[in-house]
Amino acid sequence: MAAIIDIAPAHSSRPRKATSDSLAARVLIIGTAVGFMGLMFVLPLVVIFQEAFRKGWEGFIEAFDDRATMHAIWLTLKVAAITVPLNTLFGLAAAWCVSRFQFRGKRFLTSLIELPLWVSPVIAGMVYVLLFGAQGLFGPALKEHGIKIIFALPGIVLSTVFVTFTFVARILAPQMEAQGQAEEEAAMTLGANGFQMFWRVTLPKIKWGLLYGIILCNARSMGEFGAASVVSGHIRNKTNTVPLHIEVLYNEYQFVPAFAVASMLALLALVTLILKTLTTTRRGAA
Amino acid sequence: MSIHIHHISKSFGSFQALKNVDLEVKTGELVALLGPSGSGKTTLLRIIAGLEFADAGEGSIQFHGTDVTNRSAYERKAGFVFQNYALFNHMTVAENIAFGLRVMPRAKRPDREDIDNSVTQLLRRIALEGYGDRYPSQLSGGQKQRVALARALAVGPQVLLLDEPFGALDAKVRKTLRKWLRQFHNETKVTTLFVTHDQDEAFELADRVVVLHEGDIQQIGSPQQLRDHPKNEFVADFLDCVMI
User: What pLDDT does A7 receive?
Assistant: First the structure.
């Protein structure tokens, strides 16, 4: 009888995990995280759209009825259209190299791939000015042949390539390393040449990771400010990309147009976020 | 098709995986490469397939008298079955088996109907009829192994190389597949080399067994010869201790 009474309380209380936190701790931690995210990310996003639509839809549309704005959007699209394919190729090549070959200096190369993450974009821009600018190392030679890099599209593309180089490579390299190359070897023994092997075996394996890398690379290249700012020279209707144009508009107290254009970039970020989530779940499922 | 391996060595950095290996496999033979792990047997198999290249030097590999030492894996087209199957996970079983036929150059490639027919035939042969639309992740280990074998056989290879073909399977499936492979070889007579660390497997299946240790061939002979006249202490020891 006594035994039954003893056991009863133990059965009635729910089992408690050793690692579970108390209610107060959980509320505090989750509250801090959510609060921080809301304050730092969600609120600014709301403010951007609020400012953009301060004068209603008409004011928003009007902001784009402007030569300089349209030019900036067009230029940004051009830069991304050149940068993203280039960096997709570079990224694939780098990831292939790092994941498939053993060679001296491999670790150095791996950290070099991450260079754009820890070098300020402004420095990236400055380097290209020092190399290709009028007073730069190759400046006189380029001038002689009538090639303009700095304060022109090539300079913006170069610096954007530098800043966004890392994404595709960094996402693919660990993925390809983890997958190994047994399937590629199988394809080879079955008579597939290099291209067939890549197209039919490797690409299907990495497609979601690759897509993820491309999306990030695109978002970053359209939003690039620092490096582009240094090499572009801020020439309106000529070398102003969208982020640079937003700054110009803002400095001229044209708040609605500034935020309207900014909302485009914010929208791009949101679309990127959604695509990223989709590709990540696909990657997890695959 | 016969295989001649002449003075093949291979090092990975300072580690020498194979030391001056000579081996001849006759047409239609079923040969086992037997040895403990790290003895170089898989390396030798990969070198024969062209997945690995031997150290530069006097070594050479000939397929039926033709020197293939410097040919790539896709030129050699030796049927290779990997230890962990290496099936294409994003393709169905039928697509896996058809892969080798589909990547053939246009002039040699059979038309769609012929490919479908050979896939059906191979599926029947490996007793997996009706599994063509499944994905590798939906198969058991033994089934995967058979698909890998069918995939290698689809292109009609003249050499079949199997790397620990039954290594990842449980004992019962292993025995069945063993019997199946022996029977299959009797019917087709494709020159076959397989790697194993299991002495029973080697003795039951192979016409001849090659015992490897630390990159050196210790002895080559029929199961009977090895059992009756082990050439050195290592062979006697290795065979004994596995038998216990």
Answer: 45
Query: Which token pair is A178?
Result: 């983890």
Determine whether the interchain pair B73/A193 forms a contact, defined as Cβ–Cβ distance below 8 Å. Answer: no
Q: Which residue of B has its CA nearest to A286?
A: B90
CA separation for the pair B223, B220 (Å, rounded): 9
CB contacts under 8 A, A 151-190 vs B, are 182-183, 185-190
The residue of chain A with its CA nearest to that of B88 is: A183
Return the pLDDT at A131: 86
Q: What is the CA radius of gyration of chain B?
A: 18
Q: Which residues of B touch A188 (CB under 8 A)?
A: 50-51, 72-74
> Are the beta carbons of A48 and A255 closer than 8 angstroms?
no
Distance from CA of B225 to the nearest CA of A (A): 34
A188:B79 CB<8 A: no
pLDDT in tens, B25-77: 999 999 999 998 888 899 999 999 999 888 887 788 989 888 888 888 888 88
Distances from the Cα of B199 to the Cα of A59, A80, B132, angstroms: 83, 61, 34
pTM for the model stands at: 0.79
- Residue A9's pLDDT band, with cuts at 50, 70 and 90, is very low
Q: Which letter, b or e, does each residue of A244-275 get, where b requires 16 or more Cβ atoms within 10 Å of its Cβ?
A: bbbebbeeeebebbbbbbbbbbbebeeebeeb
Residue in B closest to A193 by C-alpha: B74
Alpha carbon of A183: minimum distance to chain B alpha carbons (Å): 5
Question: B178-207, pLDDT tens digit by residue?
Answer: 888 888 889 888 999 999 988 888 998 999
